[in-house]
């Protein structure tokens, strides 16, 4: 039976950072990733990481920001969830996030920013350039340099125990037979969230519209949470998720520039160009790097856009959580439809179509230039109906219905005048779920009596342990920071299995 000091389940941001940290301490490490490539949700993300007291902040003239201030401000995002937070884990995150940024930067990641996001009192969002695959490129190279073995298409199916202690894993590689592998010091669960888990599993933790929709990352099936629960641990905050949220699909054919290697040289050139090249010239270039799932602003509905299904029908009040209803349509997607009256308002601040990495906010002209996969435009309704494949009479009836009810809400624009637009498909997703295994401040997985299960550690989404990560940049911050600390901690374990 093959053995390593440490086996890491999952090759996303958490798992690779854990492996890097553990290997840096001299441990032999195996990373098992069930997908065909390393990356996970981390590689699908927008790529912002929140931290205080960083070099980039100082370069931007922000001095004196501290983890204490970050700790306080994080609490301001929580609102009704305040009493469900794990403050000990929040403390760990804010204290160690600055070093995480330093390490990622040293490994070759280039950040721009910091970007503001109230109620953070100062800008704290560090946004990776050119896009979030850079995290994986640089971390996996650093792991390889330290001799970490990274095996893709390797699905961990169970934890192996000897008495109470977790001593290894069962893994199926390339759909082959299951093998048993030994972890002499410990196993780190870093297998992401459970947004795309089978319904039977989700039902244990979630309810309502979350059960009608899927996760953005189809591999986020909660394997780590389920394996932990199977040996007596528990999931904390399993009912919470970022979603339902309406998002467009990621670009089907990423542009040539987004496929350029994620060299630090290119990213540094981008940082320089953003300072000296006029914004109007940079926008299409920067938007060409978008590889993620962008979220349309609900302001579109507040200005008079409507939401229709593939049958051409309106199916909800667009101003009252339309995201909760898309999952029950067939197919489970919609189109955001409007005419010139709305379109002409969405070419400048404050009426953006979505936020977007690199440019901050993307307007309708940006989408028309750079996201033609999402924008369907036609001079007549008949042409629009044909382009998006909905029956014209139903589309006309939906517009009529909207135009007839405007007297009740004069703030909404009518949809009379072409060109007409349909943005979509607009899909409602669980962007990610928040429920992770219960852990202590040493990343040890806890059992039902809050006692550590020997040999088992967890971090990232699967080891979220009840920390509330609202606001942008805290999930990746947690992934990299908790992964790093869990890797370091596991490396300090005594060898317990021969
Ligand atoms: C569209 C989008 C945008 C986002 N943008 C941001 C952002 O800008 N800032 C931010 O802070 N957060 C963002 N997030 C959230 C953030 O990306 C995640 O919280 C974070 O990446 C989770 O990291 P992880 O390592 O825990 O999980 P992952 O990156 O998902 O890695 C887990 C890995 O484990 C593998 N795995 C699962 N089960 C098994 C198994 N049984 N055996 C082997 N391998 C397995 C998975 O395939 C996956 O590769 C975004 C998320 C999405 C979907």
Protein model, in words:
The protein is globular and about 75 Å long. It has 15 helices and 22 strands. It starts with a strand and ends in a 7-residue tail after the last helix. The protein has two domains: 3-241 and 432-491, FAD/NAD(P)-binding domain; 246-429, Flavocytochrome C3, Chain A, domain 1 (Alpha-Beta Complex), CATH 3.90.700. Strands 1, 2, 6, 7, 8, 9, 21 and 22 form an eight-stranded mixed beta sheet that branches. Strands 12, 13, 14, 17 and 18 form a five-stranded antiparallel beta sheet that branches. Helix 1 runs parallel beside helix 5. The longest helix is centred in the N-terminal third of the chain and has 20 residues, at 87-106. By secondary structure, it is α+β, with helices and mostly antiparallel strands. The structure holds flavin-adenine dinucleotide (FAD). Flavin-adenine dinucleotide binds at residues 9-15, 32-35, 39-42, 44-48, 155-156, 190-192, 216-217, 219-220, 223, 292-293, 431-432, 460-461, 472-477, 479. The site of flavin-adenine dinucleotide has 43 residues, from helix 1, strand 7 and helix 15.
Keywords:
single chain; 498 residues; alpha+beta; FAD/NAD(P)-binding domain; Flavocytochrome C3, Chain A, domain 1; 2 domains; 8-stranded mixed sheet; 5-stranded antiparallel sheet; 15 helices; binds flavin-adenine dinucleotide
- Quick one: biggest sheet? 8 strands, mixed
Number of helices: 15
Bound small molecules, by name, code or SMILES, are: flavin-adenine dinucleotide
Task: List segments where confidence is low: pLDDT < 50 over at least 5 consecutive residues.
Answer: none
Radius of gyration (CA) equals: 24 Å
Helix content: 25-40%
What is the name of the CATH class of the largest domain?
Alpha Beta
Give the number of domains.
2
Number of DSSP E strands: 22
CATH topology of the largest domain: FAD/NAD(P)-binding domain
CATH architecture of the largest domain: 3-Layer(bba) Sandwich
By secondary-structure content and strand pairing, the structural class works out as alpha+beta
What is the subunit organization of this protein? Answer: single chain
* CATH homologous superfamily classification of the largest domain: FAD/NAD(P)-binding domain
Spatial shape:
globular
Give average pLDDT, whole number: 93
């Amino acid at each position: 039976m093959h053995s390593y000091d440490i086996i890491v389940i999952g090759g996303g941001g958490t798992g690779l950072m854990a492996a890097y940290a553990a290997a840096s301490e001299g441990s032999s490490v195996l990373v098992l990733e069930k997908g065909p490539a390393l990356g996970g949700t981390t590689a699908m993300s927008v790529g912002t990481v929140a931290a205080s007291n960083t070099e980039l902040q100082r370069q931007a003239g922000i001095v004196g920001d501290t983890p204490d201030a970050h700790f306080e401000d994080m609490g301001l995002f929580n609102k009704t969830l305040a009493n469900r937070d794990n403050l000990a884990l929040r403390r760990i995150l804010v204290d160690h996030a600055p070093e995480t940024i330093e390490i990622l930067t040293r490994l070759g990641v280039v950040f721009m920013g910091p970007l503001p996001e109230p109620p953070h009192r100062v800008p704290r969002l560090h946004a990776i350039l050119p896009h979030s695959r850079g995290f994986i490129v640089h971390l996996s190279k650093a792991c390889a340099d330290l001799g970490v073995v990274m095996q893709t298409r390797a699905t961990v199916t169970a934890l192996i125990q000897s008495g109470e202690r977790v001593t290894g894993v069962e893994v199926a590689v390339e759909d082959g037979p299951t093998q048993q592998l030994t972890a002499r010091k410990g196993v780190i669960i870093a297998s992401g969230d459970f947004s795309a888990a089978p319904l039977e599993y989700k039902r244990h933790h979630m309810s309502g519209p979350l059960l009608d929709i899927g996760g953005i990352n189809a591999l986020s099936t909660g394997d780590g949470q389920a394996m932990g629960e199977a040996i007596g641990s528990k999931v904390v905050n399993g009912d919470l998720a970022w979603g339902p949220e309406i998002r467009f699909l990621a670009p089907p054919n990423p542009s040539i520039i987004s496929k350029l290697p994620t060299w630090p040289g290119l990213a540094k050139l981008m940082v320089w160009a953003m300072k000296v090249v006029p914004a109007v010239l940079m926008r299409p270039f920067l938007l060409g790097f978008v590889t993620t799932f962008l979220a349309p602003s609900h302001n579109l509905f507040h200005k008079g856009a409507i939401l229709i299904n593939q049958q051409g029908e309106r199916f909800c009040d667009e101003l009252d959580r339309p995201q909760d209803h898309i999952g029950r349509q067939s197919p489970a997607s919609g189109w955001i439809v409007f005419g010139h009256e709305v379109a002409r308002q969405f070419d400048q601040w404050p009426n953006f179509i979505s936020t977007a990495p690199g440019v901050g906010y993307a307007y309708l002209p940006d989408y028309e230039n750079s996201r033609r996969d999402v924008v369907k435009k036609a001079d007549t309704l008949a042409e629009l109906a044909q382009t998006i494949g909905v029956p014209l009479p139903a589309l006309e009836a939906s517009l009529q219905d909207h135009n007839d009810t405007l007297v009740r809400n004069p703030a909404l624009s009518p949809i009379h005048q072409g060109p007409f637009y349909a943005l979509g498909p607009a899909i409602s997703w669980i962007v990610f779920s928040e429920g992770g295994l219960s852990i202590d401040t040493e990343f040890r997985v806890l059992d039902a009596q809050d006692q550590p299960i020997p040999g088992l550690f967890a971090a990232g989404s699967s080891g979220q342990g009840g920390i509330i990560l609202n606001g942008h940049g805290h999930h990746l911050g947690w992934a990299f920071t908790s992964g790093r600390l869990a890797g370091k901690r596991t490396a300090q374990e005594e060898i317990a299995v021969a």
